[in-house]
Amino acid sequence: MTTDFQQGRIALGARLRELRTEAGLTVRQLAARCGWPYSKISKLENGKQTVTADDLGTWARETGHPEAGEELKARLRGLETSQRSWRRQLAAGHRPVQEALAVEYQRSAVLRAWEAAMIVGVLQTAEYARHIFTAYTELHQSVRDIDEAVRARMKRQETLYTRGKQYHIVMGEAALHALVCPPQVLAGQLDRLMGMAAGLDTVSLGIVPFGARLGLPPANGFWIYDQRLVIVEDWHAELWLDDAENVTLYTRVWETLKKSAVYGRQAQRLIARARASLDLA
Fold first, then answer.
1. Where are the domains of the chain?
2. Do residues 50 and 80 make contact, with C-beta atoms less than 8 angstroms apart?
3. CB 100 within 8 A of CB 150
């Protein structure tokens, strides 16, 4: 099964091939003009490799179609808008990513989140966030700006106290037990969640218990910003989806998962049970 990103890359490759054949060039001839291995031409034309903006400019020029450069770059921007690889996003570290997300939090009135096995960032304590950023920094071998990233995440949490905003957050019970940090840090995190479940008028916190009847299998975490944008996290990239069809789909997924959640005192009991199970010795 191909993704929308892959389909877009294949379509862009077909357009590149069209320009080459219109110029009457073979793969090897164009490779020689561009100064590339001929295998690169084949990979780009078949959607096996993501082209860069500089590559597109070279391709347009060497096929005799310099006017096509902007069209090709616009196609590339469309791909990168929907799929933002962590490799590219984290080139300057985690702090810029957190600051970019802060813009979406600030401009949104109603935010919905699903997370199966981790406390959502907007409810994390600083120490819990530190361990999350450390783990992802090591995974992606990215710039180690953990202190700056934590400060940016804590700054974003100020929106929890903004009058008129509504946060509707649903998490799996596994998030309460996942030892992605030392038990003492998780205990502090659960104490904070207990306060959120007890009542903050901008936050509705639901927990899907172990053993709850589910309408759908839990999958990747995601946020819905108003009804205009969905951001989905995967290991290799974030998906930024702003078309109505996908926003409607993820809203339907969220509503289905929400039906299995418990709130208020029931949610507090699950949090208290998770905290009591920690070995704090």
1. 4-84, 93-276
2. no
3. no
pTM: 0.75
CA-based nearest residue to 146, from 111, 101, 154:
154
Tell me if 4-84 shares its fold with 93-276: no
Quick check: 112 and 168 in contact, CB under 8 A? Answer: yes
Residue 174 and residue 118: Cα distance in Å, rounded?
7
The answer to whether 157 and 192 are in contact (CB under 8 A) is: no
DSSP-assigned states of every residue in 60-112: HHHTT-GGGHHHHHHHHHHHHHHEEEHHHHGGG-HHHHHHHHHHHHHH-SEEE
Dist CA 92 CA 88 (whole Å): 8
Radius of gyration of the chain (CA): 23
The domain defined by 93-276 folds into: Endonuclease; Chain A (3.30.870)
Dist CA 92 CA 239 (whole Å): 19
At 24-66, the pLDDT tens digits run 999 999 999 999 999 999 999 998 888 888 999 999 999 999 9
Distance CA 148, CA 93 (A): 9
The number of CA neighbours under 13 Å toward the Cβ of 237 is: 13
Does CATH number 1.10.260.40 belong to domain 4-84?
yes
Tally Cβ neighbours within 10 Å of residue 8. Answer: 19
